Amino acid sequence: MTSQVSSPAEQADEADGAVVGGQRRPAAGGKDVRRVDRVIIRFAGDSGDGMQLTGDRFTSETATFGNDLSTLPNFPAEIRAPAGTLPGVSSFQLHFADHDILTPGDAPNVLVAMNPAALKANIGDVPRGAEVIVNTDEFTKRAMQKVGYETSPLEDGSLDGFQVHPVPLTTLTVEALKEFDLSRKDAGRSKNMFALGLLSWMYHRPTEGTERFLNTKFAKKPEIAAANIAAFRAGWNFGETTEDFAVSYEVAPAASAFPPGTYRNISGNLALSYGLIAAARQADLPLYLGSYPITPASDILHELSKHKNFGVRTFQAEDEIAGIGAALGAAFGGSLAVTTTSGPGVALKSETIGLAVSLELPLLVVDIQRGGPSTGLPTKTEQADLLQAMYGRNGEAPVPIVAPRTPADCFDAALEAARIAVTYRTPVFLLSDGYLANGSEPWRIPETDELPDLRTQFATGTNHTLEDGTEVFWPFKRDPQTLARPWAVPGTPGLEHRIGGIEKQDGTGNISYDPANHDFMVRTRQAKVDGIEVPDLEVGDASGDARLLVLGWGSTYGPITAAVRRLRAAGQSIAQAHLRHLNPFPRNLGEVLKRYDKVVIPEMNLGQLATLIRAEHLVDAVSYNQVNGMPFKAEQLATALKEAIDG
């Protein structure tokens, strides 16, 4: 969905986790409408309850309305956990506001719990006083015992601190669909649409887009489309007529949060896919993806496969090694070549990445990081592949590393990774993660003239003159500025040359076991990466007198920035910088680090960037680490940073 915004950008301090009460006015039917500046909603239920679809639809309508937003889908790790169990709980959290926000929020103001498992798995995150909507039909004795409830939490007083709304969602949905020829079980499957209708009424969300979506999704099954729309409308009507919901809420559009332009809601994996397509178009190259499905990277393969009209070719290989092998072959053949994976796949691809370093061909290795080691936490997020990307190959095999910081930034990061790859003839790591991949936010669709020119020249003829005057082609004769070797497309007359993993002679590319040549080639490949032009690191230090710098990379940007805003709003002086380029580092990084008495580096690992910073710049950086499969919370980081300032 897209929307037009025409007012100037304005930064606002973020204080996630609280509905801020505003004006109250009466609505039709005698119900109050309360204006608030932000809301955090979490839908939770069994993995078969459609919580991700419900959250996606609410998010799409919120984006259309013009709010700023940030989402956090949370999937079960099991493909199909037993129904009604804690491992099978799926949730979707959405934070939307009338101003600029950066995170999905620390704590939900509203929890929609479709069964006892969803309530038990999520109630610990819900602050006292928040609203809890529960589907009472699922609170049977057996269902409660399955998750360890000895007595009903709806009756034993354990929820007295919350505003509980007991709603028989299944019964109401079945009643609303009695005119349709559906069994009770089939009708009950639409209870997520009833819940979506209720929440859409509570927060004055548009409804037309959801109805169009349902008609399109079930175009071949109009009866099912009509039933889902009926359930959706019934939920809206229930909110409007029931006495249990006496207040609805308005969150105004966030016009002041955005520069002028056309916006759409976008997830990180979708933005990255679009970035790869744009990069190929700007480079005037066909795009080739050689990949093997793996959570949470598979959506990129799915998306790119839809865009053959843009010269995109996708190949789903039989395994990770075949996927990158095909991609490297495509790079040799003159394509913008990409392989997508997650941490376990990177381990399998490492030998071929080393081959790409040796061949000096452009190749994008997209790593959507997840919890590890081994299979680890397939559906949870982590930042623990940085050292693997930096060093996870045999021999001296340097590879540039780029990391996006928000879901929308995945588009620009893909363009930047492609720029480096084609300019310097090198494989490039793009390190996203599950939080960015599945999360979403508004994205301003760029104009084509805003995109970088990535066109590069293929070798077309000889480039070296021998002592006897013979004109020859040397495949490893380098550009004096970039140290990149020529990119010679197979079949070009006179440019035949040897490829392979054995060390090559400088210039000629012939096999060489000469010690001095090997030393020279190793140092040259390292110098090429070290010499990559990257922008200087920008530092946010509003007061100019901060003594503490918080340094981050990747998806920690949102929580760090939200925490820094909180501290500054409380009168604290604190500086912030965020790295996009992790190899090579920006050239001014050392000078930036020396300005501050203390450097704190929050990471969703055990201190991998901190290790690199200490090694390269001899700075005693302080690590603040979390590896629980979830992103940092702003309040948590603000507390830790305040302690660092005071200490």
Description:
With 647 residues, the protein is an alpha/beta fold. It has 20 helices and 26 strands. The strands form 6 sheets. A 7-stranded mixed β-sheet has the order 13-12-14-15-17-16-24, sandwiched between helices. A 6-stranded mixed β-sheet has the order 5-6-4-7-8-9, with helices on both faces. Mean pLDDT is 94; it is low at 1-13 and 15-22.
Portion of residues within helices: 25-40%
Helix and strand composition category: alpha/beta
Q: Taking all residues together, what is the mean pLDDT?
A: 94
Adjacency order of strands in the biggest sheet: 13-12-14-15-17-16-24
Radius of gyration: 27 Å
Shape: globular
Main β-sheet description: 7 strands, mixed
Amino- and carboxy-terminal Cα gap: 47 Å
Q: Tally the helices: what do you get?
A: 20
Number of strands: 26
Q: Classify the beta-strand content into a percent band.
A: 15-25%
| Low-pLDDT segments, ≥5 res | 1-13, 15-22
Give the quaternary arrangement of the chains: single chain
Summarize this structure as a short list of keywords or feature phrases:
20% strand, 647 residues, 26 strands, six-stranded mixed sheet, seven-stranded mixed sheet, alpha/beta
